[in-house]
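Hey, I'm writing a tutorial for new members on how sequence and structure tokens pair up, and I'd like a real worked example in the thread rather than a made-up one. If someone can provide the structure for the chain below, I'll link this post from the tutorial.
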Amino acid sequence: MHATVRRYDGVDEARRDELTTKVNEALIPRLSKMPGFGGYYLVEADRGVMTSISFFDSQEHADESTRLAASWIRDEKLEGALPNPPKITFGKVIAQKTNGGVAAV
């Protein structure tokens, strides 16, 4: 499994609800249809900071998700809500543990 973490700084707080709605209604469905999809989380970390975490079965699929996310931001005209390019960290997951369920948001 491979993970991609994208940290977005300078998020327009006035557009946070719009961004969250669009992620839930448009981005997550597109990502979840990609080959190798393992999961996606969007975290509101602090004022003006959001972090997304996605999981895919291979580096190639994770890389494709980064291209899809960048294209989606342009398609949805969210450049103003996300004015700075994300800081991206990615790599192979080398340890993990879950208890099998995650509460719905």
